[in-house]
Amino acid sequence: MTAPITIPGEDQIRGVMLASVSTDSIEDSLDVLYTQGSVIIGLVMIFLTIVAVFAADRVVRPLHQIAATIENVSAGYSDDVLHVDTFTETKSISEAINKMMGRLKLLDDSREEFVSNVSHELKTPMTSMKVLADSLLEQENLPVEMYQEFMGDIAKEIDRENKIITDLLSLVKMDKKGQTLNIESININELLEQILKRLKPIAEKKNVEIVMESFRPVTAEIDETKLSLAISNLVENAVKYNHDNGWVHVSLNADHKFFYVKVEDSGIGIPKEDQAHVFERFFRVDKSHSREIGGTGLGLAIARNAVIAHRGAIKVYSEEGEGTTFTVRIPLIYTAS
């Protein structure tokens, strides 16, 4: 550092003062700082890397557990409940997966039960026909009357088998997602009259009186085939599970948005504990009586599927020994989803 030397009162510079300080110590300090700083930075980087790996492992580990559970599900449903409560997000994901697994297990159990029921129902008529046919083959010189009786029984079993297969096909078609409905504007009063006319011979065999009551003319947008099948099943059940000399009352009403069909009977009724299951496939309140009158256990399941396909609702009310009432509510104007 330099500074000029002057005499007060004169402008002339008499000399220059030079002051200097050694920078060796500063350079040494900088060298030490650079060396130690690099070491410190390296240690910090290593520490941060270890922390990052640990944090990443902690974050990824729950995802690995979830992935392993999903793999187990794909290999075969696992009964283990997934508990990954490490983070709020993984807890929500594990709860959602548990719900999905529960739903899949329920569907799988339902499928197995359905296949078992179908196998049993299809096998029963075949077994009966085999027994009847073997009896005919084993006996010689059978009277014509007995031969005719056996053949009549075989014909009944064939009809029963055909009805089961027909009902199963109807149910499978209705179960398909995105099923197409042939929607038309139909006169519901005339439709009910046609259904009751077709079922009148069945009712006459049991001396069951069918009465229809219409409160007003009703026209609605429906699939005539599917809804006819649903109403037919309800009325046919009301006749079949009725007492001799009983009655079936079918009524039709409507408001500005829906039309309502009510099917009441004076039949044997449904126990309260069974009412929640009547729409399940192959469910029968009285299995021996159902087999005796030719029930397949699919009629109400078909009716429910047809009503739901129309965005409607179906309910059952019953008192054991006093009769049963089914109510159906269908929108007047069909709205596709």
Automatic annotation (TrEMBL):
<keyword id="KW-0472">Membrane</keyword>
<keyword id="KW-0808">Transferase</keyword>
<feature type="domain" description="Histidine kinase">
    <location>
        <begin position="117"/>
        <end position="334"/>
    </location>
</feature>
<dbReference type="GO" id="GO:0016036">
    <property type="term" value="P:cellular response to phosphate starvation"/>
</dbReference>
<dbReference type="InterPro" id="IPR003660">
    <property type="entry name" value="HAMP_dom"/>
</dbReference>
<dbReference type="GO" id="GO:0005886">
    <property type="term" value="C:plasma membrane"/>
</dbReference>
<keyword id="KW-1133">Transmembrane helix</keyword>
<keyword id="KW-0418">Kinase</keyword>
<feature type="transmembrane region" description="Helical">
    <location>
        <begin position="33"/>
        <end position="56"/>
    </location>
</feature>
<keyword id="KW-0812">Transmembrane</keyword>
<dbReference type="Pfam" id="PF00512">
    <property type="entry name" value="HisKA"/>
</dbReference>
<dbReference type="InterPro" id="IPR003661">
    <property type="entry name" value="HisK_dim/P_dom"/>
</dbReference>
<dbReference type="InterPro" id="IPR050351">
    <property type="entry name" value="BphY/WalK/GraS-like"/>
</dbReference>
<keyword id="KW-0902">Two-component regulatory system</keyword>
<dbReference type="InterPro" id="IPR005467">
    <property type="entry name" value="His_kinase_dom"/>
</dbReference>
<dbReference type="Pfam" id="PF02518">
    <property type="entry name" value="HATPase_c"/>
</dbReference>
<keyword id="KW-0597">Phosphoprotein</keyword>
<dbReference type="InterPro" id="IPR003594">
    <property type="entry name" value="HATPase_dom"/>
</dbReference>
<dbReference type="InterPro" id="IPR004358">
    <property type="entry name" value="Sig_transdc_His_kin-like_C"/>
</dbReference>
<dbReference type="GO" id="GO:0000155">
    <property type="term" value="F:phosphorelay sensor kinase activity"/>
</dbReference>
<dbReference type="InterPro" id="IPR036097">
    <property type="entry name" value="HisK_dim/P_sf"/>
</dbReference>
<dbReference type="GO" id="GO:0004721">
    <property type="term" value="F:phosphoprotein phosphatase activity"/>
</dbReference>
<feature type="domain" description="HAMP">
    <location>
        <begin position="57"/>
        <end position="109"/>
    </location>
</feature>
<protein>
    <recommendedName>
        <fullName>histidine kinase</fullName>
        <ecNumber>2.7.13.3</ecNumber>
    </recommendedName>
</protein>
<dbReference type="InterPro" id="IPR036890">
    <property type="entry name" value="HATPase_C_sf"/>
</dbReference>
